[in-house]
Amino acid sequence: METISDYRELDSLTRPLKVLLWLGAAVAFGSLVSSVMVLTELNAPGYRSSTEPTASDLREAVVGIAHLVLYLVTVVVFARWIIRAHKNLPALGADRANITPGWAVGYFFVPFLNLWKPFEAMRELWNISGDPRDPNISKTPGLLGIWWGLWLVSNYLGQAMMRTSMTEQSLDSVKSNTMLGVADGFLSILLCIAAAQVVTEITQRQQNIRDQRPLAQ
User: Fold this and answer.
1) What is the pTM (predicted TM-score) of this model?
2) Which ranges of 93-170 would DSSP assign to H, the alpha helix?
3) CB 118 within 8 A of CB 104
4) Residue ranges of the chain with pLDDT lower than 70?
């Protein structure tokens, strides 16, 4: 049986993860501003499309690369944080968890199941971290629901942008894709903020339980 001595502090992952998420919000804001500028250009009177690279194209490319690199790094750190947080549950006194640490991350990459299973894993993590002995795992905190809703909508917009970019690039399609970029940038800011709050709250809940229990001898 695992004891409190098996508990591993989350702060070593929580701190860099929050930095990455706030950086993600900043990059998303930059993407939002860039998309608004492009949309303004497209709607300007007398605008004529051109196949030559422009300053806007370069700016969009730089923002896109920064967003991709930061996203990949954040995914890796977030996955490690989720696994460690789930592995702490037995050490905090939880009798059982319905979802294993591996699947808490793995469900994000399984088509169809990724629409709700990662949320169930995070909800279980949230509730057990607050009360390992008597968790109400069906209870859904408002913050967690907001985070997951933003995640789903943001992913849908990202897929819609990808589909639109693969079609013939008429002026109307470019405008549509840019408007999707504006919406995605705004939602990404909110998503990063919500994710940072979820990570902070779960870390604090686990620390509170940890502080209430003596170390195993």
Assistant:
1) 0.86
2) 101-106, 117-130, 142-165
3) yes
4) 1-5, 46-57, 166-169, 213-217
